[in-house]
Amino acid sequence: MRIAYLSIGGHIHTERWLRSFVNRGHEVHLMTVQPVPIEGVKLYDIRTGIRFKPLHYAVALRKVKRILAEVRPDLLHTHFLTGYGYWGVFSGFHPNVLTVWGDDVYLTPHTSFLKGRLARMALRRADLVTGDSEDILERAVTMGAAREACHVIQWGVDVTAFRPDAPSDVRERLGIPADSPVVISIRSFTQPYYNIDVIVRAIPAILEKRPDTHFIIAGNEGDDTEFRKLAGQLSIDERAHFVGKIPHEELPAYLVTSDAFLSVPSVDATAVSLLEAMACGTPVVVSGLDSALEWVTDGKNGLVVSPRDQTALEGAVLQLLDSPERRKEFGTISAGLIRERADHETHMARMEELCLELVERWRKPGGAREIR
């Protein structure tokens, strides 16, 4: 297939997805306003330099249409409902695949009438909609996506790299003693709903009971300055290691080092970092979102707390640190679950099947689903 993508450049999700399709022998083109080269992918910069957003979108849309006319792809695959999804729907190109990510469904469409209307239009007119949880697809259906066009496709985990026996020198690099517990958070610093502030504020109470504990605070996006400042105010600098963005290939080393992984957002789709932690056998504490509960059962393979409940978070972390047997049991169950349900290559193979079926359907006279 010749596939044209509209997606966020320079993002690990985009890079892994596109590389998988390149490796499967497909011709891949990427249109983006964040142009970062990806090996094997033809890159198109659709930036305009125009600050007035309506005009920016209009001028970029002309670029998108021109590129599609030149490339003549078999299908257009748009990642992210708001923003890129607008260009996808107004390009008029079919077949059109739409993959939703998270706050593009849960939050942004509900911030204004216009954004909501555009999001609903993009979902209604998509020929295939994918998301990484049943919950996010249910939200998409309520906004207009055709239920029969919706499929769960995980970003997935490279289970050959993320595994309980992955090698690690992280303790040596960070100066953490071999017998000290380690708690890790790997969530974006860009949005308040990831509740990194709650994690940092929970550290003093945990250290009061377990003063030998070390905390690794990482983020794949954004600036951690405000959280470093908060750590200084709480006098926990010596136990809180702010490591910024961890290269993806180094993540397994950090995860297998850790005795607990924290992911407690107020809103989220399925967090890939959560699945990667589970694949490494790292016990997890998650907030009770539907997307997380598709993977974590409280007391069986992890602990569940309410978002922004600092006291509950402190208690859950201490429970894990005080029970090596429970940590081992949780980790073993989770690692098996990820191998069974979240292998990256398995989900990309399924995505390839869906795309091939869609292209074939559109090639047959009268075979395409009518666009509402």
CATH fold type of the largest domain: Rossmann fold
Quickly give the structural class. Answer: alpha/beta
Q: How many angstroms separate the termini?
A: 26 Å
CATH secondary-structure class of the largest domain: Alpha Beta
Q: Looking across the biggest beta sheet, what order are the strands in?
A: 3-2-1-4-5-6-7
Broad shape: globular
How much strand?
A: 15-25%
Contiguous helical run count: 15
According to DSSP, the number of beta strands is 13
Number of separate structural domains = 2
Supply the CATH superfamily name of the largest domain. Glycogen Phosphorylase B
Major sheet summary line: 7 strands, parallel
Structure description:
- With 372 residues, the chain is an alpha/beta fold.
- The protein has 2 domains: 2-156 and 344-363, Rossmann fold; 170-341, Glycogen Phosphorylase B (Rossmann fold), CATH 3.40.50.
- It is 43% helix and 16% strand.
- Strands 3-2-1-4-5-6-7 form a 7-stranded parallel beta sheet, with helices on both faces. The chain has a 6-stranded parallel beta sheet with strand order 10-9-8-11-12-13, with helices on both faces.
- Helix 6 links the parallel strand 6 (128-131) and strand 7 (150-152).
- The longest helix has 20 residues, at 344-363.
- The chain is globular, with a radius of gyration of 22 Å.
- 44% of the residues are buried.
- The model has no long low-confidence stretch (mean pLDDT 94).
Layout of SSEs?
Elements: E1 2-6, H1 12-23, E2 27-32, E3 41-45, H2 53-71, E4 75-79, H3 84-90, E5 96-99, H4 103-106, H5 113-125, E6 128-131, H6 134-142, E7 150-152, H7 170-174, E8 182-186, H8 196-209, E9 214-218, H9 225-233, E10 240-244, H10 251-257, E11 260-263, H11 272-279, E12 284-287, H12 290-293, E13 303-305, H13 310-321, H14 324-341, H15 344-363
Parallel strand pairs: 1-2, 1-4, 2-3, 4-5, 5-6, 6-7, 8-9, 8-11, 9-10, 11-12, 12-13
Helix pairs in contact: 3-5, 8-13, 11-14
